[in-house]
Structures are given as C-alpha cells and as structure tokens.
Design brief:
disordered C terminus; about 425 residues; nine-stranded parallel β-sheet; 7 helices; about 15% helix; alpha/beta
Length: about 425
C-alpha cells in the first residue's frame, strides 16, 4: 500500500530534524521477499519505505519487532506519528484522514502477521507516487454531463454544482467526509437530506433553490454541521419563515437571506454572537427584533424591505396597562432569569434541555432582564427605534425608518416606565 502525504523525520537521540519541515512524500508498506531457508521456504520481511525529494531511492525501515510507538490521537485530523527503534527516528505524518486510517490499519495487520490485499505490494520494487497523481480536493460541475461516472473522489474538500437542474442531493455527496465547502446554488432543490448534518462544512451555498416549499430544516440540527458552519447562503429560496434551528449554528459568521419573503426575524437571533455579516435585503420585514442590538455585526443589509411606520396602537396599549400588582411569573421563567442574571454555567445534563434553550434563545427586555412573551400583549411591534450601537455598516432604504419589536417584562419594569413617559408626550 502506498499513500501520498507530508512527512517530517525527527531523530529521537539528537532531537534533530532530518527535514526542517514536513515535505511531500510517498509512504509505502509491503513484504520483501528474502532468500529461501534450509527447508526451502521463502522468508517474508515486512518493510516500510519513505520516498521524498531528499531521498528518491527511499529510506527503508524494518517493521516487525522494530516499532517503538504509534501515536494516533489526532488521526481524525489526518495526523499520526510512527516511531522506529532502529534507526531511532519518528515519522511525523500529515495525510488525508481516510487514507491515513487505511495505512495504519494495514500496518496493524502486518504486525499481527495477517494477510491483507494492501500488503501484496512488492516493497523491493516500490517507487514513489508521481506528484501529478495527488488526490483531487476540488471539483466544479456546471452541467449534468460533467458528473463523474465513477462517483465523487473521497478526498474532495470543495464541491461546486451550479445551474445543473439538480432536484435531489445524493447520499454520495453527503458521505464525503473531507468536504468543507459545498456550493449547489442555482438548482431546484426542495429538501436537503438530514445526512448532510454529519459533515463538518465551513461554507454552504444553497442560493436560488426551492427550500421554502417544504421548510424542512432537519439537516441544520446535525451536530457536526451546526458546530462548524461559518458561511451560509439561503438567498432566493422563497422562505417565509426564518429556519428555527439556524440560531444554534453559533459559529456562523456570514448569513445571506436576500430575496426571500421573510416578515420577521426571531429574538433568538441574539444567540449568533459570531455573526458579522447579515444580508436580508429584498424581503418583507416590517421591523427588526430588539435583539439585533445584542449582536456585533460589521455589515447589516436590510435594503428593500417593507419597514412600517411607528405603531401608535401598540404604544397606546402600553400606556393603558395598569401599574398595579402584576401576575406572578411562572417558576420556570424565574429559574431561567436567575441562571441568566448570575451567569451560572450551563454544562450538558446539569439543567433541563428546555430551560437551557430558553436561556439561550428567549428575548430580553430593554432593561436587560430575560423575558418571554407569555401572552400576545407582551409582544410590542415597531415601538422602538434601534440605535445600532454595535453595527458598523448599515444599508437600508432612506425613505423608511427602522423600528424594532420588543418584549416588556411587565408594568413595573423600568424600561416599561420609560416607554410610558415617552409615549405620554406623544399621546397625552
């Protein structure tokens, strides 16, 4: 078996690097046929050969009873170390994770004396893999005829399939474990398989599809995807609602929701603390949630929305609320507020999942208190003008003033009293 990799050789006795940095190499393992013994049997000796630019003929290492240590802690990241007794050298290997795991499995079988197809290589005649045969990591498909007949290379890290009338994302694509960038814009996708959530994608472009028809967002709940996704494009998909699981992608840096039919953004968007670019132009937004003030956004684009004028009915309703005894808050809301106020840790399993989700996603009153809309009257629409203190660049239609939705704790809240004072001047 042979693999292409980067290898750095370190001598354990002198701690000197035989190579100053990892170099492109070929690592091969197989049996060397030796002379026959007295009984006429051919001896087979397991060897490993390292080919590099500095050693084109190959550096040979005996394997049986000559392995000092094998470190595989970071094998999922494509890194491993193989140490030999003679010579006292460590091979620091960096390779495609799938190929590396296959190579280490072959090494294990050889050390156990088991036969394997990958060990049939005649190591005496082994040569380096030509550099032009390096694994393919990027593929661009612009029409159906360009689809690979033999399937997609397992080593792909970037895959682009644009404007190909694609109606379904195949399971084969969802099984490309090395994939970090996927662009399937300009197709006819109505649903994304839940298996996509198993990929650690950093960039996902789904613009100009039809995902708003079914509104199926199960794939966004995938643990790996939600923890790795940094860039998401859902523009021109006919979305009428903000995808609820999207707020759990807490590493999201760029979100594009342009050219949809969104009428509201959720208060739980405050959970996206890593968000730096938010594009929601050409939608039907009437206002923004007050939680937008909790974000530190470099670019907010809300051009071409339907921002409505100040909601006088909501303001008058607030001024008519009684300032007497308020209804006692539910115990679960009081518990959530206590955890949030005292900034208690939220380790998994220590609190009910529902309570953790409430703390992370529930809106906050203007006074800073964790709040919740217990009734329809608690949600006030278009009553406050955001200050956009934490937003560096704002793009919007100058003829429309932007207002925000808020949730008020109750009539005794300080923010509520301030709003009443302000509105009393407007509506005496």
């Amino acid at each position: 078996m042979k693999i292409l990799c980067e290898v750095q050789v370190v001598n354990r006795n002198t701690q000197a690097n035989r190579t100053p940095r990892p170099v492109k190499s070929t690592l091969a393992i197989g049996y060397k046929q030796s002379a026959r013994d007295a009984n006429g049997n051919t001896k087979k000796e397991l060897e490993m050969v390292l080919f590099s630019g500095q050693s084109k003929t190959g550096s040979r290492y005996k394997v049986r009873d000559n392995i000092h240590a094998v470190h595989t802690k970071f094998v999922l990241d494509g890194k491993a170390t193989i140490g030999f007794k003679q010579p006292a050298e460590n091979l620091l290997i960096k390779c495609d994770p799938i190929q590396l795991k296959g190579f280490l499995q072959t090494l294990k079988l050889g050390m156990e004396g088991k036969e394997a197809i990958n060990l049939r290589l005649n190591i005496a005649a082994a040569t380096a893999i030509p550099q032009k045969a390096q694994p393919q990591v990027k593929m661009v498909i612009s029409k159906r005829s360009e689809y690979p007949i033999k399937g997609f290379p397992r080593t792909l890290k970037s895959l682009t399939i644009n404007n190909s009338q694609l109606v379904k994302l195949s399971f084969e694509i969802c099984s490309l474990r090395n994939l970090t960038k996927l662009d399937v814009s300009g197709n006819k996708l109505t649903k994304i398989p839940s298996e996509l959530g198993r990929l650690a994608l950093s960039s996902l472009h789904l613009g100009s599809n039809c995902l708003g028809e079914l509104n199926d967002w199960c794939w966004l709940r995938g643990t790996k995807l939600s923890q790795s996704l940094g860039e998401l494009d859902l523009s021109s998909n006919g979305l009428t609602h903000f995808p609820p699981p999207l707020v759990k992608c807490e590493r999201l840096v760029s979100l594009n929701l342009n050219d949809n039919q969104l009428t509201r953004l959720p208060f739980s968007i405050r959970r996206l603390q890593a968000l730096r670019k938010l594009h929601v132009c050409s939608n039907k937004l009437e206002s923004l949630p007050s939680a937008i003030e909790d974000l530190h956004i470099d670019l907010l684009d809300v051009w071409g929305n339907c921002f409505k004028a100040f909601n006088s009915e909501e303001a008058q309703q607030l001024t008519k609320r009684t300032s007497g005894n308020s209804t006692p808050q539910p115990l679960w809301l009081q518990a959530a507020r206590a955890v949030a106020n005292y900034k208690l840790p939220l380790p998994a399993g220590s609190l009910p999942a529902v309570l953790i989700e409430l703390i992370c996603e529930a809106p906050k009153c203007l006074c800073g208190q964790l709040c919740y809309a217990l009734s329809k009257e608690d949600l006030l629409q278009r009553v406050v003008q955001p200050k956009f203190t934490n937003i560096k660049n704002l793009t919007y239609s100058r003829e429309h003033q932007i207002y925000a939705d808020v949730v008020i704790c109750g009539p005794t809240c300080s923010a509520s009293q301030q709003l009443k004072s302000l509105f009393s001047l407007v509506f005496p």
